[in-house]
Amino acid sequence: RKEVEQDPGPFNVPEGATVAFNCTYSNSASQSFFWYRQDCRKEPKLLMSVYSSGNEDGRFTAQLNRASQYISLLIRDSKLSDSATYLCVVNVYSSASKIIFGSGTRLSIRP
Amino acid sequence: DVKVTQSSRYLVKRTGEKVFLECVQDMDHENMFWYRQDPGLGLRLIYFSYDVKMKEKGDIPEGYSVSREKKERFSLILESASTNQTSMYLCASKSVQGNNEQFFGPGTRLTVL
């Protein structure tokens, strides 16, 4: 079982729709969480950190559920420019810090 | 503006060749990382470095080595390239302070024939 799991998609949704994806993690020592965005043939870039109380950045909302060990990303009023792969990232702190990337969820917004 | 650069965007090498991939960051970050990214497998950590002269094996270090002689530069070496090392290689850096954000270079697409 992968330490961080994501539905690979693709999610194909119309412009203006709301879309959500989840990411599950297996290590209960996970301490911090992020969503990165990766455009086609580009490098990953930080989209947002995920805080325990949930956080919002414009049309994007991130949630953390420690009990069920998953994080989610909600995109409202989706734009064509939101088409990308979204990577879930987990920092695990046990004897040493370890950063683990999910394989990514591909999102395609259609006009 | 933060910047991580990699020496090549595209590289084609032959089996058995020694390959050097260079990564430079201008943010004075302590930590640097080398990943490879393959379809369906996501980013896998090859090696990382906490600071100058320090290196730690990641999840898939076999067939690779690294060098960190200066803080800004982290080199990945393929001692004898093989076809299964054809991949996208991504370098990243981060500060030990702040929110643990990693900054990535543009990647090197390596093809081993």
What does this structure look like?
The complex is a heterodimer of chains A (111) and B (113). With 111 residues, chain A is mainly beta. Chain A is built from no helices and 11 strands. Chain A has strands at 4-6, 11-14, 19-25, 30-38, 44-50, 55-57, 60-65, 70-75, 84-93, 97-101, 105-110. In chain A, strands 2, 4, 5, 9, 10 and 11 form a 6-stranded mixed sheet that branches. In chain A, strands 1-3-8-7-6 form a 5-stranded antiparallel sheet, with no helix packed on it. In chain A, a hairpin with a 5-residue loop joins strand 4 (30-38) and strand 5 (44-50). The mean pLDDT of chain A is 92. Chain B has strands at 4-6, 10-13, 19-25, 31-38, 42-49, 56-57, 64-70, 73-78, 87-94, 103-104, 108-112. Helix content of chain B is 0%, strand content 53%. Chain B is globular and about 40 Å long. By secondary structure, chain B is mainly β. The chains are: A mainly beta (111), B mainly beta (113).
As an assembly, this protein is: heterodimer
Helix content of chain A: under 10%
Strand content of chain B: over 45%
Q: What's the gyration radius of chain A in Å? A: 14 Å
- Main beta sheet strand tally, sense and closure of chain B: 7 strands, mixed
For the residues shown, what is the average pLDDT of chain B? 94
- The assigned structural class of chain B equals mainly beta
How does the major sheet of chain A shape up?
A: 6 strands, mixed
User: Counting H and I runs of at least 4 residues, what is the number of helices of chain B?
Assistant: 0
Which class of secondary structure composition applies to the elements of chain A? mainly beta
The total of beta strands of chain A comes to 11
Unreliable parts of chain B: none
> What string, H for helix and E for strand, traces the elements of chain B in order?
EEEEEEEEEEE
Give the overall shape of chain A, derived from the CA principal axes.
Answer: globular
Largest interface: A-B, 16 and 16 residues
- Mass-distribution shape of chain B: globular
